[in-house]
Amino acid sequence: MTKKIILATLAIFIAWSILDFILHGYILSSAYQATAYLWRPMSEMKNGLMYAVKLLSALVFVTIYARLIFPKNMNYAVSFGVLFGVGTGISMGYGTYSVMPIPYSMALGWFLGTLVNAILGGFILGWLVTEKKTS
After folding, report:
1. pTM strictly above 0.90
2. Region label for 30, one of left (φ > 0), alpha (ψ between -120 and 50) or beta (otherwise)
3. What are the helix and strand counts (H, E) for the chain?
């Protein structure tokens, strides 16, 4: 199971990195430009920390599924992804929107982006982290 957890963590980290690049670099770029006063300049961004956080988040996502979700199949994995995505997406998007002067489009984008990331993570879990069938 350890190899499956490592492989799933890396696969989800890569998938989330690609989706985040698309979401933040292209889809929400105008919203970030309009609120530039809220963010560090690009030269001061902590990219290493950002990737470390994403990797640790992927590991936690996979570990919760691997240790707490039974049975391990595609249906449960995607359901876990949906619930995880809604829970974290609401906090990320609308929790932040409630306390920061960000545009609504950014809050919605963060919510939907987090949801899509988690659902994709669920599909990856369903594909890679499965139980051996006993007969």
Report:
1. yes
2. alpha
3. 6, 0
Contacts 24+ apart (CB under 8 A), 30-37: 31/102, 31/103, 31/105, 31/106, 31/109, 32/106, 34/103, 35/101, 35/102, 35/103, 35/106
Alpha helices (H) along the chain: 2-22, 29-34, 47-68, 74-89, 96-99, 104-128
Token pair for 25: 């670099």
Residues listed for the chain: 135
Backbone angles phi, psi at 103, to 5 degrees: -70, 150
Q: What is the chain's alpha carbon radius of gyration, rounded to the nearest angstrom? A: 16
Q: Tokens for 105, please give them.
A: 């489009």
In whole angstroms, what is the distance from residue 45 CA to residue 49 CA? 9
pLDDT tens per residue across span 60-106: 999 999 999 999 999 999 999 999 999 999 999 999 999 999 999 99
How many C-beta atoms surround the C-beta of residue 110 within 10 A? 25
Q: Where are the beta strands (DSSP E) in 1-135?
A: none
